[in-house]
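Re: that backbone. Tokens:
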């Protein structure tokens, strides 16, 4: 495991010595400087450019947090040690990008665990020059299951080995957190509360981890918080996540707000989800035509037909003629498995592994690799022919 460089900051010499020794004993940390005076910390960070700062908030935590705010972006990762019973201090530290909030006098084991997590996270980060592809999932109309598609696609990408962030921009009343049964501490509206430039630590501090490995940025539950979100915030959030993840999946609203347009502009591919019924197909055609008029390349637009069933009288030929484009994927209808996924907050691979729906989402994830020109991770083999088998569901029964 690689070593991570730290600056130790404490206004108490005894505590600074304790933190320094604990870091060195972790086996994966190198202390490049120990700082006692608040005015020296920003200069030390600029000089040494550490990977992280281990900060003792001491007896005046807000004063120390004021010092951290003076550090220019991009800031190192922050590990804070402070009071566990002051929620305002913890919240402010996390909003400033603290990746860990340890007890006021952490033991060696607590520090070692925090260091290990930071080292693992840094090892998993893609190279800064390789911005992650962004997949925007948009429903042609309400009730077509676009959120389910976004969630299961993101989970499938994560399962294939790509570190994936899932952003809920289906505002208002986005359901990504609900579908994955997580209780997020923060939402994208919290990014809007910061008046300065959004940096990597702040954005990553807003993410909610899921047991599948996904990192989720939830939509705000309160309608009044929606007004806080602007095009600038969406741009900064997506841009930051592209630098830290292998994939960014966005559940976007079908309403044409300024932040929806910004998300679509930044997307490498747009997945338009529809059903096999006339209303949703009509809306899908209207959305596609508008996107083309707005200058989006046709190769960037992908039609995803959800809940495909052979009982419907619509054939693939009918779809291609009606939409002026063949569907890229037909996801089979598996109501029982889909409902279980939502009710239990689990990916389809955990609920119904190797089912037709599981295999379809796996192939959709593999298609995203093809669209983006990225090679599948080592050991992952593409499944061929599933798309053809799924498309047979559209054939009229003879």
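Recovered sequence:
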């Amino acid at each position: 495991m690689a070593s991570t460089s730290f600056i130790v900051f404490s206004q108490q010499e005894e505590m600074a010595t304790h933190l320094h020794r604990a870091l060195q004993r972790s086996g994966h940390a190198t202390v490049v400087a120990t700082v006692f005076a608040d005015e020296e910390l920003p200069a030390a960070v600029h000089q040494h450019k550490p990977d992280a700062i281990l900060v003792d908030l001491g007896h005046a935590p807000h004063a120390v947090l004021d010092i951290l705010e003076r550090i220019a972006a991009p800031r190192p990762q922050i590990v804070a040690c402070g009071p566990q019973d002051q929620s305002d201090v913890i919240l402010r530290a996390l909003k400033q990008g603290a990746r860990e909030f340890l007890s006021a006098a952490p033991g060696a084991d607590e520090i070692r665990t925090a260091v290990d997590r930071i080292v693992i996270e840094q090892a998993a980060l893609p190279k800064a020059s390789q911005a992650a592809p962004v997949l925007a999932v948009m429903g042609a109309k309400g009730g077509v299951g676009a959120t389910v598609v976004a969630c299961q696609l993101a989970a499938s990408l994560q399962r294939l080995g790509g570190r994936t962030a899932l952003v809920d921009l289906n505002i208002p009343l986005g359901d990504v957190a609900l579908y994955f049964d997580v209780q997020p501490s923060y939402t994208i509206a919290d990014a809007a509360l910061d008046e300065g430039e959004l940096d990597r630590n702040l954005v990553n501090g807003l993410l909610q981890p899921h047991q599948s490995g996904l990192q989720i940025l939830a939509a705000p539950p309160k309608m009044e918080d929606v007004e806080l979100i602007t095009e600038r915030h969406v741009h900064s959030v997506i841009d930051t996540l592209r630098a830290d993840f292998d994939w960014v999946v966005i559940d976007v609203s079908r309403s044409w707000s300024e932040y929806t347009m910004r998300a679509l502009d930044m997307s490498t591919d747009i997945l338009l989800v529809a059903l096999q019924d006339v209303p949703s197909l009509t809306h899908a055609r209207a959305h596609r035509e508008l996107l083309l008029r707005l200058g989006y390349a046709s190769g960037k637009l992908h039609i995803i037909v959800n809940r495909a069933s052979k009982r419907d009288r619509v054939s693939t030929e009918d779809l291609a003629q009606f939409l002026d484009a063949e569907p890229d994927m037909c996801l089979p209808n598996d109501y029982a498995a889909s409902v279980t996924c939502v009710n239990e907050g689990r990916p389809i691979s955990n609920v119904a592994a190797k089912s037709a729906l599981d295999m379809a989402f796996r192939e959709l994830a593999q298609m995203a690799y093809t669209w983006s020109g990225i090679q599948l991770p080592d050991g992952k083999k593409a499944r061929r022919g599933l798309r053809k088998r799924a498309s047979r569901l559209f054939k009229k029964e003879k």
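Confidence is low (pLDDT under 50) at residues 384-398. The first strand starts at residue 4 and ends at 9.
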